[in-house]
């Protein structure tokens, strides 16, 4: 389709792609548990998020240190005193049963949910725990 504007032909774009981010879900456990306020992030585990169906009202323990073998969830690796890991897992409870994108780079500002931080240059340049 061609749009004619004062003798200049400009192709009409029929598809529009929006770059707006989806709404970040809410962790209802934040009201009573403050682990999401830890001052540091863990190591980059992966540079892409993990899609997971979470059940409403169920408690999950999301790994913040980035060293768990059961990513994106905690397996207790942070308790190993020899590793000297400062980060603790973040307790997560959602209001709605559905699929959620959980952060695997561990750098999100909306723990545990992906906010696109994995697309930043610092994260892309970082060495991740898993092979790319």
From TrEMBL:
InterPro entries: CISD, FeS-contain_CDGSH-typ, MitoNEET_CISD
Cofactor(s) this protein cannot do without: [2Fe-2S] cluster
Every Iron-binding zinc finger CDGSH type domain range: 47-84, 87-124
GO molecular-function terms, A-Z: 2 iron, 2 sulfur cluster binding; metal ion binding
UniProt name for this protein: Iron-binding zinc finger CDGSH type domain-containing protein
PANTHER family: CDGSH IRON SULFUR DOMAIN PROTEIN HOMOLOG, CDGSH IRON-SULFUR DOMAIN-CONTAINING PROTEIN 3, MITOCHONDRIAL
One GO location term (cellular component): mitochondrion
Organismal lineage: Eukaryota, Metazoa, Ecdysozoa, Arthropoda, Hexapoda
Domain of life: Eukaryota
Keyword annotations: 2Fe-2S, Iron, Iron-sulfur, Metal-binding
